[in-house]
């Protein structure tokens, strides 16, 4: 199969770098176009971006000329674009590309809560892609915008996905989030060394409403959020990668611990059935050790694309409590978007 | 006033060192006796203990000879003893000293859940000292054992104390606990650098049942635990001192945020009324900044004896959620026990 | 004695906050004036500055109105000004205030290497104040500028001060520097969590040339740098406060280890002789423990104003090697400048 | 080619786990035998060892029965054994296996300084294997013991290897070492969080003498250490993996910076020429970025088997200074030993 050319909008920032890293050697997609601000346009990537991940930028990317992040008929971008644009400009730029016929698979938050923009965790709600026709009608564009959730939301929804059919009524979740989620320079070291910051701007609201949407259903061409009550406490801790969540959940069904663990471990979604290249074989994995999952020891397992759950035990207030973990910049950002694009490719939606 | 001689049981360990540090220059108590295992007995303190706190052991303590931690009529210990004994031996040793007439003010967990042993947070339940007579009758000893709670429980009960009169029904709490709570050598650096360990053995059970006891009342010479439902998620994070708690709480009364903040800030207990030397002027302090309290920036304020609360906001699942913080080795251990002893002294119970 | 009013230039930044903290309750100086950029001028301090140190800004400071950092005859600043100005603007502003008759005691680097500007570590080179007359003649101003060195230089020169009379020939020093030295937001957490950054811009050059100047002497109204060879390797590590230095030194004299330790421990300078309020009783203290000094356990001792040395042992390449430590934001910044001002006050130079 | 069966002595400890991890999927060696203390013998590996690395122990290893770490003709160990034995018992056990005909490729320090035991960094001194005959004669055993150096020594000798032919006269090196070098539980978190410990027991002596031996030559069947002067300052920092070294070096030859960088980048040794499976293509790599190498960003590159050098600049005291980095548990421990065994296999010494 010929590879499909793809581009990255916002290629010089930290999420952009994660896209570049994640797309290295991808079997379906060939990264050939890098879009960034006017300030970077025209420069070689190595001169436009300070590489902040481990190692260095891949050699051919380092020597690629950065384009301006706007549709340009003389220098057309590939049809499929991953967006890592900053929220301050993503609305306008993503819409311009959708208008110009591009499929924009975005990690930015700007369009996530639109009722006709899929907010995908493909194992959980691949069916939400069905609203794309309504999106095209409403906006009158030939392209499309598809989003993935906030990094903490991904972790929570992957852990809740297997429980959805048992009726999720109420969830209290406390996050201990890695600093990489805040980008670069992001969290000052003076704030986080030997410290906990019990606040991340707007994160709790996003986590609550995004989770409800992802677990929701489609009605009359709209995505309707699940009517469950969620309460999030979001904290930043001195961890590089991997968001850890302490979750209490109340379900409609009465289940045993064994049934829940079985539901988690046997969970498979569309990405697994279609064997998408970035899909983890087992999207949710229950760890039996009493003190796991842990970000430093588990986040990078299985390519950083799985969600690890542990410590399931009864909750004296709601029904059950457990710990969940996923890699925030892979499964929670670049890998999430690439998996979304793979799903669309496999379903013929990139035509 | 003449100072009262006091001793420390388990003086060479980390909590023992915290007692030594906290008692330096105490206006009422003079630390003159150091008890430890037979292995240390007879040595000078500086040779028996590797000092793990900042700086060095106070000079006169360094040159004090360590005694064996057992009642010895030839070398009698002071009447008031602070116990930092390891749980593996605390039951026997503390009882032996109570039998020998000593007042044992213990930080160890062994006797905390006995129905006639006060588990004190003096601002919250100073009245629980009333069971000491029943304790003496049951055990038939002239002395007494009084305890302070686990470090995470202290933080929670100080934050809940001002709300008790509004009817505490349900609490979900997630802790992010400092490594100093685990003693020395305690948590291996390989476990916690850049990591979160979502498990602390037996901590959740202790936190749940101790909180219920502290918030409970006295009936027929027994302490009866409060019939509230509590669920704790306990985690270790890369912080040296200061336990941070994310708390959701359901109350019987309907209150506004302003009323709750007013209740927190105006809370005063017996230690404040009696102006005990180690009592913080304001035991609970609400911080208005959106990202506080934080362990590194707030735990040491007010001598490490206050509880700081912040981020009060409605909880979509229970009624309210907030963040609470206290210094785990001061207010949560050595300082807690010393305040207990000050309370007993002021009430004439050390006679 | 009436207290002297003083001001801080650059009061909103992190070093400015350290000045505010250090001057709280100072017996000689009363902080009454806060200067900052035009953007902050006219605001209350609490609105102009985000407080980054522990706790909160002192209450009366929080309510002080910030002035613009320029001489203003209608709203005159106090004669004595501590400067925490950013290097990008310090040259012009400090000179303007000296021209207007102020004594500017600066922590900024801009004037440090001028031959007629004292670069003071008062224990080591209090005599360098003698060049102030030459400075006034050259610049034609009634005021004066006096500086303290870079935070890593302070630590090194305090440790070398007692050895100066034995002839310092060559020094190789490797620093492990705390993040607080870089201000706020300063070092991104992504750069330093679980990491070492073996580079601090221009730090090695500053450390080399400043040390030579401080250890130098006065000749014909100029400060002449010591002709010793120094090589610095500067690194940033995941420490909040306290710079640790690994030092190898070659001396002209042959000394025993005991003689060196004696020289360190018995070292006293003008600040000790004049009993300046911020002077540590023993400016250099040798620690006998095999694994000390350590930043977290020793930097804050003695008010953060002393230099701790340990691990003296023969160096197979030069003569001796040892470890030195001082608190970089107290002895290495705010405390250094205040001690300089105390020295000038005691010598009648604040007229 | 049939794979060769191999075993690990001390398989349950942290270095043993690193051997297991490193040998997974090895093209030449098949790990079939796990030796440990009598206490572990007879248990399945998963029950005998608490896995401390990321993820979990490989499935087939988890189910392997642990053998006692002593020669046993009824349950013979493979001929090639990797030793991760604790130094307290390694002398006796390694000798017993050599006596029984095994090739013991050891990471333990016990035999490193024997004049007829190769202390190998194969790129630097593969020729030292020539003393094995003398070793066999002296000890009268059919087997052999071969060692790799201390983790900090590996980093230094790889960086100095390319410079050896220019005459290494004097070296001052300061290390900033990762906690994983101390094993598990190893460094207590109370010692290293937000701290530097400027002391590692015996590390400086080992680093000095091992480096001299590795850079030495063979004379009359003995390895004769290089007559260069080395001074090491060893420090522990809050890093998980990767030792960072600040090095000053004096050479006999006058070189330009370009010549040194060229010497580093073009360095190839026997492992590269023989294309050993674990040999890095480029054993020493010079990084041009001003702030590299860094442990978190560079240690794991190239499989953790290369040494990264950066920041070459003139040293005012010796000739040149630079920063060097290698992965302490891969290139500095398990990977080092496996590369030694590969070298011996390729040279027909495992016969």
List the helices and strands and how they pair.
4 copies of one chain form a homotetramer.
Chain A: E1 4-9, H1 14-23, E2 29-36, H2 45-48, H3 59-62, E3 67-68, E4 80-83, H4 87-99, E5 103-106, H5 122-125, H6 132-139, E6 144-147, H7 151-160, E7 168-177, H8 189-192, H9 203-214, E8 217-219, E9 222-224, E10 229-236, E11 243-251, H10 257-265, H11 270-273, E12 284-287, H12 295-298, E13 307-314, E14 320-326, H13 330-346
Parallel strand pairs in A: 1-2, 1-4, 2-3, 4-5, 5-6, 7-10, 12-13
Antiparallel strand pairs in A: 7-11, 8-9, 11-14, 13-14
Description:
- The structure is a homotetramer of 351-residue chains.
- Chain A is of the alpha/beta class.
- Chain A folds into 2 domains: 4-150 and 334-346, Rossmann fold, CATH 3.40.50.720; 151-328, Dihydrodipicolinate Reductase, domain 2.
- Helices cover 29% and strands 23% of the residues of chain A.
- Chain A contains 13 helices and 14 strands.
- The first copy, chain A, has helices spanning 14-23, 45-48, 59-62, 87-99, 122-125, 132-139, 151-160, 189-192, 203-214, 257-265, 270-273, 295-298, 330-346; strands at residues 4-9, 29-36, 67-68, 80-83, 103-106, 144-147, 168-177, 217-219, 222-224, 229-236, 243-251, 284-287, 307-314, 320-326.
- In chain A, the strands form 3 sheets. Chain A has a 6-stranded parallel beta sheet, with helices on both faces.
- The mean pLDDT of chain A is 97.
- Chains in contact: A-B, A-C, A-D, B-C, B-D, C-D.
């Amino acid at each position: 199969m010929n590879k499909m050319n793809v581009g990255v909008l916002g290629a010089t920032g930290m999420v952009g770098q994660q896209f570049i890293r994640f797309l290295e050697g991808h079997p379906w997609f060939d990264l050939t176009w890098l879009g960034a601000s006017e300030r970077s346009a025209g420069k070689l990537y190595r001169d436009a971006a300070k590489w902040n991940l481990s190692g260095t930028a891949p050699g051919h990317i380092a020597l690629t000329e950065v384009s301006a992040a706007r549709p340009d008929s003389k220098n057309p971008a590939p049809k499929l674009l991953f967006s890592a644009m900053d929220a301050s400009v993503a609305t306008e730029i993503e819409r311009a590309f959708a208008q110009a016929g591009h499929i924009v698979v975005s990690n930015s938050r700007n369009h996530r809560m639109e009722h006709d923009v899929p907010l995908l965790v493909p194992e959980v709600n691949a069916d939400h892609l069905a609203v794309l026709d309504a999106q095209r009608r409403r906006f009158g564009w030939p392209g499309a915008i598809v989003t993935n959730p906030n990094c903490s939301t991904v972790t929570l929804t992957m852990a809740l996905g297997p429980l959805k059919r048992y009726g999720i009524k109420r969830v209290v979740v406390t996050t201990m989030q890695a600093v990489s989620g805040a980008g670069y320079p992001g969290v000052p070291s003076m704030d986080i060394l030997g410290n906990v910051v019990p606040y991340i701007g707007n994160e709790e609201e996003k986590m609550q409403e995004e989770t409800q949407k992802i677990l929701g259903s489609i009605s009359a061409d709209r995505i309707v959020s699940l009517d469950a009550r969620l309460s999030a406490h979001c904290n930043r801790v001195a961890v590089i990668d991997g968001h850890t969540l302490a979750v209490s959940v109340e379900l409609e069904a009465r289940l045993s611990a064994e049934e829940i663990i079985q539901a988690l471990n046997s969970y498979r979604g569309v990405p697994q059935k279609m064997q998408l290249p970035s899909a983890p074989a087992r999207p949710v994995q229950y760890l039996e050790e009493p003190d796991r999952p842990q970000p430093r020891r588990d986040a990078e397992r299985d390519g950083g694309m799985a969600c690890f759950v542990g410590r399931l035990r009864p909750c004296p207030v709601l029904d059950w409590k457990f710990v969940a973990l996923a890699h925030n910049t892979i499964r929670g950002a670049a890998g999430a978007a690439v998996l979304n694009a793979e799903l669309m490719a496999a379903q013929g939606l990139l035509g």
